[in-house]
Design goal:
single chain, mainly alpha, 10 helices, elongated
C-alpha cells in the first residue's frame, strides 16, 4: 500500500479537516498526501506518526535497520553525522549514496537543511538505519 493510502487508513473515520488542522496544513494539502500527489515534509510526516502512534519504519517499509547507532545525539543533524561516522564513509560517499550534492549533505549534518521525505527514505534504506530512531520516535532500537 502506498504512503498516502496508509495515511488515509490511519485517519480512519476522522475527517480530513480534523487531521489537516492537527497538522497545520490545508485540507487540499492533506488530500494531496493521501492521493500520493505530493509527499509531506519530514516534520509533517513525524507529526502524523506521533498523532496516530505509527512507526515511521513501517510506514516507509524500512525492513533492515542493522546500522542504527546506539542513542547518539538528540537532533536529526547529529544523528546523521553519527551515522556517517559509524559507517566510516566520507561526506562525498554519503552524498553519492543518496543522490545529493556534498554541499546538500553537509547542510543536513549541520542542521541548515532538513532532508525531504524522499531523501530521508533513501538515507534509511541505503544506510540500513531506523527512521523511527532518526526522527526521535524511539530512543533506542
Amino acid at each position: 500500500m502506498s504512503l498516502g493510502g496508509k495515511i488515509r487508513m490511519a485517519r480512519g473515520r476522522q475527517t480530513q479537516a480534523y487531521l489537516a488542522e492537527k497538522l497545520a496544513v490545508s485540507v487540499n494539502t492533506l488530500s494531496a498526501y493521501e492521493k500520493n500527489r505530493s509527499l509531506p515534509s519530514l516534520e509533517i510526516f513525524k507529526r502524523i506518526c506521533k498523532i496516530y502512534g505509527l512507526s515511521a519504519d513501517e510506514l516507509l517499509e524500512i525492513m533492515d535497520i542493522s546500522n542504527t547507532p546506539d542513542n547518539e545525539g538528540e537532533m536529526l543533524d547529529h544523528k546523521l553525522a553519527n551515522l556517517r561516522d559509524q559507517l566510516d564513509i566520507t561526506q562525498e560517499k554519503m552524498a553519492a549514496l543518496i543522490g545529493v550534492s556534498v554541499s546538500t549533505w553537509s547542510k543536513y549534518e549541520t542542521g541548515n537543511r532538513t532532508p525531504p521525505l524522499n531523501r530521508f527514505l533513501q538515507i534509511c534504506k541505503n544506510c540500513k538505519v531506523s527512521a523511527d530512531y532518526l526522527l526521535g520516535l524511539k530512543e533506542k532500537v
